[in-house]
Structure formats: structure tokens, C-alpha cells
Amino acid sequence: PEIGVMEVLLTEDGASGVFMDGLPERFETLQWHSAEITRLPAGAQVLATSPACVVQAMKWGTRAYSAQFHVEVESDTVRNWAAIPAYRKALETAMGADSVGRLDSAVASRRVQFETMAERLYINWIQTSAQA
Length: 132
Known about the structure:
By secondary structure, this protein is α+β, with helices and mostly antiparallel strands. It has helices at residues 12-16, 77-82, 85-95, 99-108, 111-131, and strands at residues 2-10, 26-33, 45-49, 57-60, 64-67. The model has no long low-confidence stretch (mean pLDDT 94).
């Protein structure tokens, strides 16, 4: 599992495309997943990557985009997800004792940054659909 606030890096395709436009080359984001893409569909492009997960974001065709990391962060996201027993177990396995409180604090301290990036990504996504 990749769980916590972790750094993501744009690839050359990500930095030069519309979907990730306006995002920094390196940025922190919320990760909370236990699965990953290990083989891209033919013609897909990796837009963002990290050492722990090669495909953090991808583009396939003209309208299919995906992100492994989470931009849909609200003030209660960590607590809500931690209320799901399987999610809490994965979090505690990855981050140890008091992981809910520590992750909640880490996310809260970056909330403005996360919201700004989410808004930019959503605007970019709308622009990509208008271009196709």
C-alpha cells in the first residue's frame, strides 16, 4: 500500500500537456491505495509518477484521464476513510500507531494547497473535454 502524504512528479508528457497544466513539477498529495497500474493500455501516456508507484496519473486517448493520488480531499476525508475497517487497517499497517491523527494533521496542514491543485486539475479536465 501507498498511504500518506507523498510526493508526485510530473513526467515530460504531464508537464507539457493540458491535464496537469499549472501544477508544480513536484507536489505533495494524499495517497491511500493498495493497487496500482503495472501495464498501460496501448497508446497510454504516464503523466505523473513516484518512486513507489510508476503510474500516478495517465492519459489514454483524447478523453480518458486517471490519477492514482487523491485530489478530492475535504476536512473530514481521513477520518471518514479511517472509519472503514479495511482502510483503517491498511493505514495503521503502513503508518503505525496514531496514524489517523498524524495523517489527518498532515492533510489539514496542506489543505489549501490540495484544494488549489484540485481546482486546477478539474478546470484542466474540463478544458481537455472541450478540445476533443
